[in-house]
Design goal:
globular, alpha/beta, 207 residues, 5-stranded mixed beta sheet
């Protein structure tokens, strides 16, 4: 049976669970110069073969040469587009560093116990508000970083879905990137450490 390796694409790098512990190690592609407001992995497209080679070598160093028995469980930012999702999947599955890949947005990993909740996160581009129910994104709204306000988002969160009018739905603030200071009073904070603990034991069957 294939084994799952949790992996997170953050605002600035890629975190991969260590083989023999719940710690996460960082993969950074050489010769990548960040561009403001552009996800760093977009630059992988300029050096696909080179990037795949470095990633495979990184995985071999940390997981051994028999990489074909692993599935990468890739956690991506909540504002990842469908086209970006396709690129991410294709880049890693064709790197030769795994058997297959599975992908899930961060919002779906914030809680393992609630049947429904609201997620709030921030990337380099957007603030994203989502209503999650039964492990599916039911409603998603993106806000411009330069124009949105916490007051506006809090108002929207209260009417994001009709369920909000009848049930006490928790709001989780994804502070993985340590960039949610303006929103800490809106709900329960999920710290970087707490998030890593939640996905350290993730299984593809749970995605």
């Amino acid at each position: 049976m294939a084994k799952t390796i949790p992996m997170i694409i953050t605002n600035s790098d890629i975190l991969i669970k260590a083989k023999d512990s719940d710690d996460f190690i960082t993969f950074e592609m050489p010769s990548i110069t960040p561009v403001p407001n552009i996800p760093f992995y977009h630059l992988f497209a300029e050096k696909i073969a080179e990037g795949q080679y470095y990633f495979k070598e990184f995985m071999k160093e940390n997981y051994g040469k028999k990489l074909g028995k692993y599935i990468l469980a890739i956690i991506v930012p909540d504002d990842t587009s469908k086209l970006e999702s396709i690129f991410i999947n294709e880049f890693f599955v064709n790197s030769g560093a795994c058997k297959a890949v599975a992908q899930m947005p961060m919002a779906l990993a914030l809680s393992k116990n609630d049947s429904s909740y609201v997620s709030l996160s921030k990337s380099l581009r957007n603030v994203t508000l989502e209503y999650i129910k039964d492990r599916e994104v039911v409603v998603k709204k993106h806000y411009d970083l330069n124009t949105c306000t916490p007051e506006q988002i809090l108002r929207d969160a209260k009417v994001l879905h009709i369920d909000m009018e009848y049930d006490d739905i928790p709001i989780y603030i994804n502070n993985f990137n340590l960039n949610m200071d303006d929103y800490i009073e809106m709900g329960d904070i999920i710290s970087k450490r707490a998030f890593l603990q939640k996905i350290a034991q993730i299984d593809v069957e749970k995605l």
